[in-house]
Amino acid sequence: MRLRFAQQVAALEAGSTSSSALLTRALAAIAQDDPTLHSFLDVDSDGARLMAAQSDRRRAAGALLSRFDGVPVALKDNLAQEGRPTTAGSRILQGYRSPFDATCVARLRQAGAVIVGKTNLDEFGMGSSTENSAFGPTLNPRDHGRTPGGSSGGSAAAVAAGFVAAALGTDTGGSVRQPAAFCGVVGVKPTYGRVSRFGVVAFASSLDQVGVLADDVDGAALLLTAIAGVDPRDGTSSARALPALDDVAPVGGVRIGVPRRLLSGIDSAVAEGLAAGEERLRDQGVVVVDVDLPCSEYAVASYYVIAMAEASSNLARYDGVRFGPRQRGEGLEGLYESTRALFGSEVRRRLLLGSFVLSAGFYDAYVEQAQRVRTLIARGFGAAFASCDAILLPTTPTLPFLLGAKSLDPLAMYLGDLFTLPASLAGLPALSVPAPCISSLPVGLQLVGRAFDEATLFRLARALWTTSDGVARLEQ
Ligand code: GLN
Hints:
Blueprint: H1 5-14, H2 19-37, E1 40-43, H3 45-61, E2 72-76, H4 103-110, E3 114-119, H5 153-160, E4 166-171, H6 177-183, E5 186-189, E6 209-214, H7 217-227, E7 255-258, H8 268-283, E8 287-290, H9 299-314, H10 331-340, H11 345-358, H12 364-384, E9 390-394, H13 410-415, H14 421-426, E10 430-434, E11 444-449, H15 454-464
Parallel strand pairs: 2-3, 2-4, 7-8, 7-9
Antiparallel strand pairs: 1-3, 4-6, 5-6, 5-10, 9-11, 10-11
Helix pairs in contact: 2-3, 5-6, 9-11, 9-12
């Protein structure tokens, strides 16, 4: 039987299951359904069995490493895991095995998590549907004709399908929150700096953050608590202490702001989900106010200039000399050319545009302008937080779209990121939780908080949280 994260922890604590038994079930479910869904790029059955057996021994000896010691989890395949493939969804990293663990991965190990495998993603995290993976798309477990979102679509699908109760992803402009919304699971992008980026395949360094996806709020909180914290290997990681994320204090009196002006034109099902969420919060005494997020309508333009510029610089290392499988070619340029021909078309588009906006004569017109907009967006949040404690808006303007619907229209794909990009540009924590309404396809509600105030987001997420099976949370 499928158990949610909190249920797995409870069953392990009650002794009614073992880590090895949870893993066996996970591997069987993957073997049965993942050939269709394609959420994993690599499953490490042997390694995971070893980790599960070690966890069971620790439990027997009363030497647990964390509350979720022994729970199977998955990693997005742009996170380095020692001895395992790390492709970032790209042919240019095919066959690469990481000689080290990313800090977030090392911390999961130190918490006793059982790492089942690496999940599918848009190449280098560039996309919103997982269709840009060099290894084929992932399907949405809720509707196989639709995308699970992206770029952490494999992680979201693996959680939604019940293969694992939680997974790590990365979020540069929405890649944890949007797939979480599309697959009906919880997704958290912490404050920029909250989690070390050491060992994360870089896309846009001023925006990249590691995030968590889980099938309940408590699972997301436990995982984030395990991976957060300062790291000497990432100078942008923050030493600010993570507040306790298990606060179940009533939310009465908390103020949330809804940026109505930004929300015109959303799908009616999304509007219904938002209304249901607001109602549920109001019922619990939350005060809902209107807020303005000035300049957020320019978030797409600003983000794509900045992200492409940073990507073109970060991905310059894949030249066949320092990184990437060396190809044959005439001279040095020929070598670069044939190696970099391994990039997929979306990555190439972004590298070309990124180099263009960085070039002399265009930098001021594009990058500098985009940075100004970024500053104004961040200030806008600062002003909004004078009248509320968190902001509530849908995670996406639409329901999960059909596979192929936007893959030939990059601009349409980019515009779908409108609601996740402002928090990314401002470096703020944001969480997507399924809306409390019964519809055939999930709607994600996004909460954005003040920098380093993940705790308020988790409190509000718990107030919004419902599950079809009525399972609420972990015993304290
Ligand atoms: N969809 C956005 C993009 O394509 C965000 C991706 C991400 O967060 N990695 O850039």
